[in-house]
Amino acid sequence: MSTFTVRPAAASDVPTITAFNIAMALETEELALDAGTVAAGVSAAVGDPARALYFVALPSPSPSPATFAASPSPSVSPATVAACCMVTFEWSDWRNSTVWWLQSVYCDPAHRGQGAFRALWEAVEGGARAAGAAGLRLYAEDSNESAHAVYRRLGMKDDHYRVFEKMW
């Protein structure tokens, strides 16, 4: 198992996170996202912590370049970022506290199974606890069994809710 350093995302990470989000949508939902829209959305989140927090995991202590399969654009290079996730916030009146939602979770295929997501999870969980959050939530595609297994190993449980949405 490799070791990873987790840090808040910086503006210089926007191209990598954008590429990861586009790759994730293709991989999990066969959905082709517009790169400009995704880049603007990631930039908005990275630039405004009230909207969301992005975190990146980097191999440590000597980061080496991460490989990136099926890059959506030859101009995008994921550099040393191995994984990323975004945290958004939901107020829970039932708990009188905030629930942190993990979203846009992606681990570069070259770093899967090496502890990159575990490092992100532990950092986010620590931050949520320190901030007094009620807990953590995330959603995963129904068919993404490998992600479900990872989340269960980290102590997450399937809940009794189903997420419904109407997107336009």
Which helices and strands occur, and which strands form pairs?
Layout: E1 3-8, H1 14-29, H2 35-47, E2 53-60, E3 83-92, E4 97-107, H3 116-130, E5 135-138, H4 145-153
Parallel strand pairs: 4-5
Antiparallel strand pairs: 1-2, 2-3, 3-4
Helix pairs in contact: 1-2
Describe the protein.
A hairpin with a 4-residue loop joins strand 3 (83-92) and strand 4. Residues 63-78 have low confidence and may be disordered. By secondary structure, the chain is an alpha+beta fold. It has one domain: 3-Layer(aba) Sandwich (Aminopeptidase). 32% of the residues lie in helices and 23% in strands. Helix 1 (14-29) packs across helix 2 (35-47). The protein is globular, with a radius of gyration of 16 Å.
A few lines on this structure:
With 168 residues, the chain is of the alpha+beta class. The protein has helices at residues 14-29, 35-47, 116-130, 145-153, and strands spanning 3-8, 53-60, 83-92, 97-107, 135-138.
